[in-house]
Amino acid sequence: MADTITRERRSWNMSRIKGRNTGPELWLRSLLHRAGFRFRLHAKELPGKPDIVLPKYRAAIFVHGCFWHRHEGCRNATTPSTRAEFWQSKFVSNVSRDERSRAALQAAGWTVFTVWECELKSDAPGVVERLSRDIREAV
Q1: Eight-class DSSP state of 52
Q2: Residue 54 CA to chain centroid, in angstroms?
Q3: Is residue 108 part of a domain?
Q4: 52 within a domain of the structure (yes/no)
Q5: 40: CATH
Q6: pTM: predicted TM-score of the whole model, two decimal places
Q7: What is the β-pairing status of strands 40-41 and 111-116?
Q8: Residue 74 is part of which domain span?
Q9: What is the total count of domains within the chain?
Q10: Nearest-5° Cα angle at 103, 46 to 50
Q11: What is the pLDDT of residues 78-129, one digit of tens each?
Q12: pLDDT confidence of residue 18
């Protein structure tokens, strides 16, 4: 199926996609704050610049969108039908970068958590409860 909008409009749409302070990220931050956690954001000195950093617990949290980070088995991890080669390369690059960041953080003694956009949408209280338990147990 061909794209229904012009190349210029598609380019403009894609340029508006944020990498930081996304809706799911803001939502999780709010829930973690209510749960009593205090954190830093996008720590530049850490590999991969985790979305949320809890220095007290040496924990880093990445909030991943299912589409961009290829959440396995998720219905939101679709692949566009046009320019399939470009998209496949992009997705492989994203997943590879995620793995390198996770490994580097773990090697530096950090506990790394990943929260998927779809998990947050379907069961936000459960996600925060699980994260709270796992973060405190990791200490």
Answers
A1: E
A2: 16
A3: yes
A4: yes
A5: 3.40.960.10
A6: 0.86
A7: unpaired
A8: 23-138
A9: 1
A10: 35
A11: 888 888 899 999 999 999 999 999 999 999 999 999 999 999 999 999 999 9
A12: 67
